[in-house]
Design a protein that fits this description.
The protein is an alpha/beta fold. The chain has helices spanning 22-27, 29-32, 50-58, 69-75, 105-108, 121-130, 143-149, 161-164, 176-183, 202-221, 223-230, 239-249, 252-255, 258-274; strands spanning 12-18, 41-47, 64-68, 79-82, 87-89, 95-98, 112-115, 134-137, 154-157, 171-175, 189-197, 286-287. The protein is 41% helix and 20% strand. Helix 6 (121-130) links the parallel strand 7 (112-115) and strand 8 (134-137). Helix 3 (50-58) runs parallel beside helix 4.
Length: 288
């Protein structure tokens, strides 16, 4: 799934990590299928779940990688954040679901919650919302079924489960994107970002930023073709549901998060420090 190189330039392999999800696939469609100029670089697309990419980022394994905003707190010495490629929950986002139809936040306290990873932004948001709580880590795509089957009292859903949990008779206790929107006066909940390794140097970082932004813009400009490509990674979702999910997380925020997106990331990490969830100040640097 590597894009062709431009003629004449020396080939340089860039390993690009992202999740095997319809929204990430849509974002990188233009690059993966050779529709944007790779400027002499060869991209190897490495598809892993977000928690694996978070763990890899601790060691700086990939030149560019999707990571959780929460994870950035632990890799800021190695990576800077691209101002495009972000997944922002604009008054929606990860949610806690349960079988109980009338559950509220007080019911939730004291329950063990299934989570998709301790470095996910969803986990950090839930910590900010709920405080300390008991949890079990499991693969994100097993959480909804675990709650349905009674193996978990409640589950923290990311990805498509935000749209499909009702099909299993599950009920949302809290939508963390809505909670953050109300708490911050309308800021989006920062979930995932694309990060570029600092040791590549400013020129290469800027070049990679330019190429990846072109891929996002191409997908949005060729939505039908991009969505058809993304359906390969939609895990059986109906096309209309996948289209809705892609629209939630590949949009104007993704093309350029702007000042408000940057503000939301800084506030998210600052509150994590203030509440003692992250033990150190986090230098947040952006590459346009």
């Amino acid at each position: 799934m590597s894009s062709p190189t431009s003629g004449g330039a020396e080939n340089t392999l860039i390993r690009l990590g992202h999740s095997p999800d319809s929204d990430d696939a849509f974002m990188f469609y233009g690059l993966a299928e050779g529709h944007v100029d790779a400027e002499g670089l060869q991209f190897e697309h490495i598809l892993k779940d977000i928690e694996t990419l978070n763990q890899w980022a601790l060691e700086g394994q990939l030149e560019i990688t999707a990571i959780s905003v929460h994870a950035y707190a632990y890799v800021a010495d190695k990576y800077a954040i691209l101002t495009h490629g972000a997944s922002m929950g604009d008054n929606y986002g990860p949610m806690v679901v349960t079988r109980e139809p009338n559950a509220d936040v007080e019911w939730l306290r004291g329950k063990r919650i299934a989570i998709p990873g301790t470095m996910t932004s969803a986990f950090l948001a839930l910590r900010l919302y709920l405080g300390d709580f008991a949890y079990d880590v499991m693969p994100f795509d097993e959480i909804m079924e675990a709650v349905h089957d009674g193996r978990a009292e409640a589950g923290l859903l990311i990805h498509e489960g935000q749209l499909t949990h009702g099909s299993l008779g599950l009920h949302s206790v809290v939508d963390l994107g809505k909670w953050w929107h109300e708490r911050t006066g309308g800021l989006p909940l920062p979930l995932g970002v694309n990060a570029v390794r600092r040791d590549l140097g400013p020129d290469k970082m800027a070049q990679l930023s330019r190429i990846l932004k072109a891929s996002i813009v191409y997908g949005l400009d060729h939505r039908a073709e991009g969505l058809a490509y993304a359906m390969r990674f939609a895990r059986g979702l109906p096309t209309e549901t996948a289209d809705q999910f892609v629209g939630m997380y590949v949009n104007d925020w993704t093309v350029d998060m702007g000042e408000r997106g940057q503000e939301s990331i800084r506030r998210f990490l600052r509150e994590a420090v203030e509440q003692g969830i992250v033990s150190h100040e986090v230098p947040v640097d952006f590459v346009k």
